[in-house]
Design goal:
By secondary structure, the protein is an alpha/beta fold. It has 16 helices and 23 strands. The strands form five sheets. Strands 12-14-5-6-8-9-10-11-13 form a nine-stranded parallel β-sheet. Helix 5 runs parallel beside helix 10 and helix 7 packs across helix 11.
Length: 553
């Protein structure tokens, strides 16, 4: 579909067949009801070909994927200035509707992974109108090699760039308002892993002029009003200059890389605010931007990770500068997801993970401990249809309302056992001791003089295919405990045993049954008793059990 279109300044006339998705009180509402955006993100180039995607859609459906994080690129959407082609987006919406899936759309605009490779040729070729960023540091660039061709990096300080990017994004959102009345599309990501590599700030003439200017009063008022909840790294940089309430960037924050990161974070965030506001004037879907994490091992300074992106140290800067963004989302490729989730569960930031490794246990921890509205594994089309991840998606399907209500009322806890030690949970008036089932079974066999079973073999890879990176299944015990309003408990997950206690009052299992949630509610399976009570939650797959407790009198 090719057309010439001007960026509209008002919401177009439309009749919506369903309520517009929204984030309210930390919950994602789709069709007016809580929704968990659980699924995966496609590889960057997959959605650029409808033919390539055809078998992928079928595979994702077989994996029980309900939400697909997909892409629309500026270079394909506006190959010639002022002429737009939305064919690829339209095709994705049609495929999702056919399979009752939902989409989260990434706008690959001027910035993707701290470079500008998705900007159209007419943008990248005109360096007078769209100047490049200048990095003068000697920092080594990530993901490159000797003699590699340079990547284009446009300057976020270019007003012409911001105007053109916002115009294209608004045109996309205007089109979506017209062609997607059922809202297959539920959220939009504004650019991807923004920031600058190889230097802590842009040194171009436009950037230097901004650096010499005064810190916006909007930012300083925000810092003063929210001082008690600021990230400690940000507060430390501000306080070392005496917490000034006026002055240039150097006067208020200093002149090192930490000050540079604050400065450029403000400008990247204001750029994304301009796009998000322009897009929401056409269709007010929830919008967010995502973060390449930093600092992290091997990348301790801004510029080694993208300086100015929504990294941990500058989350407050982004919240001050970009109120049209509904949330700031971490991409998790580090070993300790627990710390990252805690970092971004900050100052009312609704948690959504758009990219992560194939580590199923992290999803359960995010749902139970941090009220996440969704979790997405990157390269989802590489997953096996019988993978641990697919089992988890199947088990959690139908539980959106159950989980969302438990999150809102504090009746849910996540389980993720990283070592052999038991964990204690306080929930529903009970203390719940959670342990790895395989350790307990091994000890019980040894206690009665039987030989312990051999260690289990390594779990198969969650991925398949010649280009897929191996991703061993998650060997940790993981899951959720949900206290139901009638006093029963739901246990969901793999490999853990939960024992309930209530002070000096004896507690025993009254009834336990397998099952799952469907559109009509709880569907019971086997009633578990006898030997099966030794391992209510499976050790080799993801399962759900409902238990009722009894306190004998």
């Amino acid at each position: 579909m090719m057309l010439a279109i001007a960026a509209a300044s008002a919401v177009p006339d439309r009749v919506s067949a369903a309520p517009i998705p929204a984030i309210r009180e930390g919950q994602l509402l789709v069709d007016g009801k809580p929704y968990l955006a659980l699924g995966g993100e496609l590889h960057n180039s997959s959605a650029s070909s409808a033919e390539y995607m055809q078998p992928v859609w079928d595979k994702l459906q077989a994996m029980h994927v309900r939400t697909v994080v997909t892409t629309a690129s500026w270079e394909d959407t506006e190959p010639t200035e002022g002429r737009f082609d939305f064919t690829l987006v339209d095709t994705q919406i049609a495929e999702a509707k056919q399979r009752d899936m939902r989409l989260v759309l990434i706008w690959f605009g001027a910035f993707k992974n701290a470079a500008s490779t998705y900007a159209p040729s007419w943008v990248r070729s005109d360096t007078r109108r769209f100047p490049r960023a200048v990095a003068t540091s000697t920092q080594k660039e990530a993901f490159t090699y000797k003699e590699a061709m340079p990547k284009p990096v446009l300057s976020v300080f270019s007003p012409e760039l911001m105007k053109a990017d916002a115009k294209a994004f608004a045109a996309l959102m205007q089109h979506l308002a017209q062609v997607d009345p059922d809202h297959r599309l539920i959220m939009v990501q504004v650019n991807n892993e923004t920031g600058l590599l190889r230097d802590s700030r842009d040194r171009s003439a436009l950037a230097q002029a901004a650096w010499n200017g005064r810190v916006p009063a909007q930012l300083l008022k925000f810092l003063a009003a929210n001082r008690k909840r600021l990230k400690p790294e940000l507060d430390a940089v501000w306080s070392r200059q005496g917490r000034k309430t006026a002055g240039t960037w150097a006067e208020v924050f200093g002149t090192d890389w930490q000050a540079d990161e604050i400065f450029i974070a403000w400008h990247f965030a204001r750029y994304m605010e301009t796009l998000a506001a322009a897009g929401k004037r056409q269709l007010p879907l929830p919008m967010y931007t995502n973060a390449w994490l930093g600092p992290q091992e091997g990348q301790p300074m801004a510029g080694q990770y993208p300086s100015g992106g929504p990294a941990r140290r500058v989350l407050d800067i982004w919240q001050a500068a970009a109120p049209s963004l509904d949330l700031l989302a971490p991409d998790i490729y580090v070993p300790d997801a627990k710390q990252v989730l805690a970092d971004y569960d900050h100052a009312g930031n609704t948690l959504f993970v758009p990219e992560a490794q194939f580590r199923t246990g992290d999803i359960f921890w995010a749902l139970g401990q941090h009220r996440t509205i969704g979790y997405s594994v990157f390269g989802i089309e590489d997953g096996r249809i019988d993978s641990q991840l697919a089992q988890a998606f199947f088990a959690l399907s139908g539980m959106d309302g159950v989980i969302a209500e438990a999150q809102a009322e504090g009746r849910i806890a996540g389980i993720l056992l990283d070592d052999d030690k038991p964990s204690a949970i306080k929930l529903g008036g009970y203390t719940i001791t959670v342990q790895q089932t395989t350790i307990l079974l091994r000890q019980m066999l040894l206690d009665v003089g039987l030989q312990a079973p051999p260690p289990p073999p390594p779990l198969p890879s969650e991925t398949e295919g010649p280009t897929a990176r191996p991703a061993p299944g998650d060997s940790r015990a993981f899951g959720l405990v949900i206290a139901e309003k009638d006093g029963s408990f739901l246990l969901i997950g793999k490999g853990f045993t939960a024992d309930f206690s209530n002070g000096s009052v004896p507690v025993e299992v009254d009834r336990a049954e397998e099952g799952r949630f469907t559109a009509t509610g709880w569907k019971a399976g086997r009633s578990l008793n006898g030997d099966e009570r030794l391992s209510l939650i499976p050790t080799d797959r993801v399962g759900i059990v409902r238990i009722r407790l009894l306190s004998p009198r």
